[in-house]
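Dear Dr. H.,

I hope your travels went smoothly. While you were away I took the liberty of generating a structure for the chain from your last submission, since the lab meeting agenda had it listed for discussion. I wanted you to have the full record in hand beforehand rather than looking at slides cold. The sequence, exactly as received, is reproduced here:
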Amino acid sequence: MTANQHRSQKSPSTADMEFSKPKFPAVRYFQIHFEHLESQLDGNQRCLETLKQQVARLEARLDAAHTPFDLSEAGK
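The corresponding predicted structure, in token form, is as follows:
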């Protein structure tokens, strides 16, 4: 057996190493990614609820400040 043959039997070729690598990231990567997305979604939903409450309060204040014009009182 020559030195080159002996070396090739011990170390896997580059093609074998590429084949053994997973094609997708580990499951933990996706878990962390989706936990982050879920956290962002929760934060966005809380902000949206706060904005809805602020708009409702503003609309109530505007409705109170702008009463409809009464034509019967305009003629007096």
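Two observations you may find useful: Residues 28-64 form one domain. The longest helix spans residues 27-65.

With kind regards,
E. W.
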